[in-house]
Design goal:
The protein is mainly α and 489 residues long. The protein folds into two domains: 379 residues, no CATH class; 97 residues, no CATH class. It is 63% helix and 5% strand. It contains 22 helices and five strands. 44% of the residues are buried.
């Protein structure tokens, strides 16, 4: 099984790399997400010396910085060319994915012990064969890099680093980089320092305090350019994308979404994308229950220090509560909670090799085969995760709006990447729009924007349930998307 797992993992790695060679129509389709186009648009503008802007003019902080700037380097290598930059992006995303697989394999092997030669290759295969990986790691967003850095921090945390300030500082650098990858990792940094202080109560508090200053201080220094940019340019350390999605509310819908997201990251091999339904939820829960039963029956527990998993669980308990309570965009929970899947990627292979070795060839081979088929189908721009509906929005604008005319949209990621003169109004990447909520038509009038294209929900949110009353009339509609034009007096 070890040789097969290694071969299968290498095959999947090559197929992920080959995503960069797909035809142009497939490149601008899935799996890049609507919000991923925001980050890639900023990356392209940085590469073209247009500044950290969403449209060449509007400065923005509505993105997670590190991977966006890595993608900007890719667009720069391609000379600012859109398609060439996307090809480099997919290569970079695949390299990050493969690096994460190698780190996860190292971690699983360290917990399994030298006598178990299967756990490491199986973990690498599992990381590359998880269906959610294609949906998460190639969206144009930070998830793949975030998991890779967390895995690197976990591997370093298991080494002998305490009492050696260069090693402590290197850990701080990695923590700073993961904060730059996604700023909510600052909660993880605080939790790790708190855990060091807890350890210090038993093994020397002064030295623990010193470690926290070295580790935490280095993380702050490394991530400080982003905090300073936010504070000095926008007046607040939180990106505008955070403000755009804030709404404090206790909601049953959010609770169910949070539970679904947690189950999905706990079992990342079972995911159906656009076809998610009760059957997928039942399969996921059944798999988790079966795994739990095997662990209980065999009385298995991981050997060695569990400090990192404990810190990860504690920090994400706080983040899950925060997002559940304050963020209305519950469809993003599955991405926000993604780092918890590292626990599955590392420990499930170890558990299977210990408590169900006969199932390993079937599960490993099956997962590899399914993922290989999905990646091959990606060449035809087909995935089970569904095509982006926002291409309908792009087609509406192309058919009715003359080139060069300003167009507004709430969800403007895909449209803004593929077309110039697009103004974002949901505030994720355009902070000026946040002040006009409840009267967005006045903002559009002020800017002289005559066109608005978006889905029904966004139309009603920004133009009201009767856009005619505020001077906008319907020009065309396709599916759930509507194109409105401002009536000039």
């Amino acid at each position: 099984m070890s040789r097969f797992a290694t071969f299968a993992a290498l095959t999947l790695a090559v197929l992920y790399m080959a995503l960069a060679l797909r035809p142009e129509a497939a490149l601008i389709g899935t799996p890049i997400a609507e919000d991923g186009w925001y980050a890639l648009t900023v990356a392209r503008n940085v590469a073209l010396d247009r500044g950290i802007t969403i449209d060449g003019l509007t400065w923005t902080n509505g993105f997670q910085p590190l991977f966006t700037f890595v993608a900007a380097a890719g667009f720069a290598l391609a000379g600012g060319d859109t398609i060439g930059g996307l090809r480099v992006f997919f290569v970079l995303a695949a390299l990050v994915h493969v690096a994460g697989a190698l780190l996860v394999a190292h971690l699983a092997q360290s917990y399994a012990g030298k006598e178990d030669r299967i756990a490491g290759p199986l973990a690498a295969l599992g990381y590359l064969a998880a269906i959610k990986a294609y949906n998460d790691f190639y969206t144009g967003l930070e998830t793949g890099l975030q998991l890779m850095l967390y895995a690197a921090i976990w591997a370093w945390h298991r080494r002998d680093w305490r009492g050696h300030w260069p090693r402590e500082a290197l850990l701080g650098v990695a923590l700073g980089l993961v904060v730059l990858t996604r700023i909510d990792a600052a909660v993880f940094v605080a939790a790790l320092c708190a855990d060091e202080l807890r350890r210090g109560l038993r093994a020397g508090l002064p030295d623990a305090i010193r470690r926290c200053f070295v580790v935490g201080g280095t993380a702050v220094i490394v991530s400080s350019p982003w905090w300073l940019y936010n504070a000095l340019v926008f007046g607040h350390p939180m990106p505008t994308s955070g403000f755009a999605q804030q709404e404090t509310l206790v909601s049953l819908d959010r609770t169910l979404s949070a539970l679904w997201a947690l189950a999905s990251v706990a079992m990342p091999w079972i995911f159906a994308g656009a076809h998610e339904d009760r059957w997928a939820e039942i399969a996921r829960v059944a798999a988790l229950a079966a795994l739990g039963f095997l662990v209980w029956r065999k009385k298995w527990r991981p050997a060695g220090d569990l400090g990192f998993p404990g810190v990860l669980l504690a920090s994400y308990a706080a983040l899950v509560f925060y997002y559940w309570l304050t963020f209305f965009a519950d469809w993003f929970y599955i991405r926000y909670f993604a780092p918890l899947s590292l626990l599955a990627f590392v420990f499930v292979p170890v558990i299977l090799t210990r408590v169900a070795p006969k199932a390993v060839p079937v599960l490993g081979g099956g997962a590899a085969a399914v993922m290989a088929v999905l990646l091959l189908l990606a060449w035809k721009n087909w995935t089970p995760f569904g095509a982006s509906a926002h291409h309908i929005q792009v087609e509406l604008v192309e058919d009715f709006v003359a080139p060069g005319e300003l167009v507004a949209a709430g969800q403007s990621g895909t449209l803004g990447f593929l077309r110039d003169q697009v103004v974002n109004i949901d505030g994720k990447v355009n902070p000026a729009a946040l002040a006009w909520r409840g009267q967005m038509w006045n903002y559009l009038d002020k800017l002289g924007i005559d066109w608005f294209a978006d889905s029904t929900w966004y139309v009603e949110t920004y133009l009201g349930t009767d856009p005619e009353k505020v001077g906008w009339h319907l020009v065309a509609s396709r599916g759930d998307f509507r194109l409105y034009q401002r009536v000039k007096e």
